[in-house]
Design goal:
mainly alpha, 434 Repressor (Amino-terminal Domain)
Length: about 110
């Protein structure tokens, strides 16, 4: 259980957050744009890990063919750091992928 404090006026205003999903769903804590960025980063890193494993590569193997040090790959895969664009291209190209900009899908109500 997570009790988030600091941005509340009183104890009565504090809100108990039980899960990461609850935190992400609370628009007073995470804006829609920030939520989209976080979800994108999680998805992107997940796809990189999946592609690396499909190629039969360890982190060290990806480091050798991408020129990125293995500890940096480990930090990215554990979401402890956010990759720069040039780092993404260095990792993705040997895995057979690239980045693309696509229009935002709008929800229809």
């Amino acid at each position: 259980m997570i009790i988030l404090k600091g941005m509340v006026n009183s104890v009565e205003d504090s809100k108990v957050i039980d899960t990461f999903s609850d935190y992400m769903a609370d628009e007073t804590r995470v804006s829609p744009a920030e939520r989209e960025r976080i979800n994108f980063e999680i998805s992107l890193i997940g796809k990189i890990i999946e592609a690396r494993k499909q190629k039969g590569l360890s982190q060290r193997g990806l480091a050798e063919i991408s020129g990125i040090k293995q500890p940096a790959i480990a930090r990215l895969e554990s979401l402890k750091s956010t990759p720069q664009i040039d780092t993404l291209f260095k990792m993705l190209y040997p895995l057979g992928y690239t980045l693309e900009i696509v229009p935002v899908k709008t929800k229809q109500y």
